[in-house]
## 1
Amino acid sequence: MSDVFETLKAIVGPKGFSEDPAEIAPHLEEWRSKYKGRSSLLLKPASTQEVSAVITVCCQTHTPVVPQGGNTGLVGGQIPFENEILLSLSRLNRIRNIDARDASMVVEAGVVLAAAQAAADEKNLMVALSLASEGTTTIGGLISTNAGGVNVLRYGMMREQVLGLEVVLADGRVLDLLRTLRKDNTGYDLKQVFIGAEGTLGIVTAGAIKLFPRPAQRATAYAAVPDVPSAVALLARLQEDTNGLLNAFELMSRSGLELVLAHIPGVKDPLSSPSPWYVLCEASGPVGIDAAFQKALETALDDGIATDVAIASSETQHQELWKLRESMSEAQKLEGPSLKHDVSVPLSAAAAFIETAIAAVTTALPSARPVPFGHLGDGNLNLNFQMARGGNTAHNLARCDEIQQIVHDIVHDYGGSFSAEHGVGVMKREALRRYKSATEVDLMRTLKHTLDPKNILNPGKLVPD
Ligand SMILES: Cc1cc2nc3c(=O)[nH]c(=O)nc-3n(C[C@H](O)[C@H](O)[C@H](O)COP(=O)(O)OP(=O)(O)OC[C@H]3O[C@@H](n4cnc5c(N)ncnc54)[C@H](O)[C@@H]3O)c2cc1C
């Protein structure tokens, strides 16, 4: 192995590797400290050619590699568990091109989402994707997990934002699909195979991403709603009255808001009296969208769909409202251990699903405190459960798999998905085997074996053995 390491280190040069445990350590633990891995060599290639040369050697020597972007993934996909080489794409950080006429940008895998957003903004254009981890998450990671976020309702997930890709294959060849065409109907759309593949089929080195006109006006509101069916009704009302210009529709429970108020400095409850549920919603579009949005909310108040509303009247207020929603994961982390479920169900089933799943989990584990929230506009719910403070947490967490299966079985019964947007990684491999058909799993294995016959790309992730 030491000869292989020397060859790989020579490819990337002195700035492109580390064997220092202190430098490697932050890459081995994920955001929630749920997974901890090990790796003796961190490689940081600076170009597609270097990635290609690295993977060529790894292929020839059967050396496994785990690709990593911003290390914000929530299913353990970016963590090397078996002392694999850790391949950080962070030095592939150039914005290669922005073309306002094509409304597209070509960015390397290690570019952080916030940097891509800022570069588009300078050209008066917009990257549609937005999520709470955008200050750290990278374009390569977003593509490889087919990430979602808060604007999926209007713009779709990452899969719908990608026009082209550059990928290093498992044998080291570079597959150049970096086209910015909106129409290219020439057979299999190969880029789709690598989107959401979690680094198991190829290393994404660059992507061509769609850009959108920056909306002239944006209207944001925080509404109290009596129950989940009312939230679903409010969504339909707002979509109709804004002509489909709603871009975000986020559900929060009172229990979640209370954790945010308790743990996040500088936030306050925007409404004077408590409500069991809240919705953070946003519409954007031409001048006048704010009036249509406000009128729709007033009608919702008259009809009792909403019981109170705070509308942002400045950029500061907009930020304050969004901070409540975006701090939800952080607040739960600060509160203590929790069981998390990133699932989706048809919107029509959202209310029944939440009720059924909470009843089932709290029957199985009475100390679990439900903290549901999520991108309700997409039917995506984070059905999380906080563990009792000072209780027998170790025992409760040990029951994690059992509780997860209870929730996922109910999701399945409602025609939903056990992973709405975070992917599969190591966390949900067993669920994939349980809920996907044997034919689907078999085809996934065939694809993996065809594209990575030596199983060197992120082994042990996503595809069940
Ligand atoms: C606070 C918080 C909020 C979040 N909110 C959301 C949300 O709203 N919606 C959502 O979808 N996700 C969310 N996430 C999850 C996470 O941000 C996304 O999964 C993101 O896409 C991961 O990007 P990354 O660069 O950090 O990738 P990493 O975590 O480094 O990697 C993720 C996966 O992609 C693979 N990978 C990374 N780069 C490459 C590459 N260049 N080529 C091939 N494979 C690669 C890794 O091997 C791994 O399997 C959130 C995470 C946090 C911490």
## 2
Amino acid sequence: MPGPSPAQSFDVVIAGGAIVGSSVAYFLKHELGFTGSVAVIEPDPTYARSATTLSAASIRQQFSTPENIRLSLYGVDFIRSLKARFGAEAEIGFHEGGYLLLASPEGLPILEANHRVQAAEQADIALLDPAGLTARFPWLSTDGLAAGAFGVTGEGWFDAHSLLDLIRKGARAAGATYLQGRVAGIGRDGNRITSVTLGDGSTLSCGTFVNAAGPAAGDVAALAGIALPVEPRKRFVFVIHCREKLPGMPLLVDTTGVYVRPEGEYHICGVSPEEGPDPRPADDDFEVDYALFEDLIWPALATRIPAFEAAKLIRAWAGHYDYNTLDQNAVIGPHPEIGNFFFANGFSGHGLQQAPAAGRAIAEWIVAGRSVSLDLAVFGFERIAAGRPVRELNVI
Ligand SMILES: Cc1cc2nc3c(=O)[nH]c(=O)nc-3n(C[C@H](O)[C@H](O)[C@H](O)COP(=O)(O)OP(=O)(O)OC[C@H]3O[C@@H](n4cnc5c(N)ncnc54)[C@H](O)[C@@H]3O)c2cc1C
């Protein structure tokens, strides 16, 4: 990937070239036929520490907010259309295994309420009582469970690298320019972004700026004097081996918040942190907290799926979530005053699956002045400025 040559000028400059930045570039140049110039600025072409490549790479429709469901329904449609979009060779290993969200008697009203919202959005989710759970998942202990919500279709997991590769190649083939560098300064003239300065001191003039810097999005917005509450948060993924076969296993989310799903011959698992301290890590802190597995995850797994009593930890990694500290939901769209500054940030654990929809929406905004395919008003920056959170109950 080349560095920029001096005094370049682009109609659109995108900060961050992982799944979100590449989706914006792809939709702009390929699907919407934007004829202007597009630069994608990415410091690390290997994406070794991007949330995209360190994620659990799963997609679900089981949200509580209709808009989140719509973003992910768009995501699954996009995944299903990869061959039509990128050619017969396009393959990301999508395994439509479903999510299974379990509820205790106390959690049942929320599960049922969420299910009503999902059904209204035509998401294919079945509510199962304990007998139904046992019939479908005989390896599951239903102790303490009132019900489970299972994604019959439209939910599952895939290879994040392959999806990124396809979209990035599609963007480049359609004429987007990828430049290796880090956005280190943003030039502003009143309510317009005019230029971007990179870490090597070179400057690009720009007509429109898109923030797609993932966990660093708050830092990038600050370069333009904008307060965006998006910061990194450390999350861990543990790879385990279980000798017993667990047929038809979905991505299961236990009442404890512990999740687990198959990954080839292994399983991967993790947990959303409980209420309590969840500090911002240092940018280079990717150290794994193994005690979390021993003390919390493994006991919860072995209780819910007795076969996991004998599971062996194979390896683990840490990744940084692009965490919106206001409401753990995406910020998508233009800044209300600085109209040529766009956000595609703060997805907080569901950005991989929502990137195609977000990328399309931002591209439509740039080309047509509004999001045409989806009504994304609820995700606008206005709510951030007003301190008015969007309530999403299913943050995993
Ligand atoms: C452990 C874990 C599990 C997850 N599981 C899921 C899941 O199952 N399903 C799901 O949908 N989502 C999941 N996510 C969330 C998902 O990975 C993210 O929401 C999504 O990848 C965000 O994409 P992005 O392109 O915005 O960010 P990233 O992939 O982080 O990319 C941002 C890019 O910006 C670059 N960058 C940073 N600073 C600058 C700068 N100053 N200038 C230019 N570029 C810059 C970075 O190098 C990086 O490549 C998970 C995340 C983690 C960490």
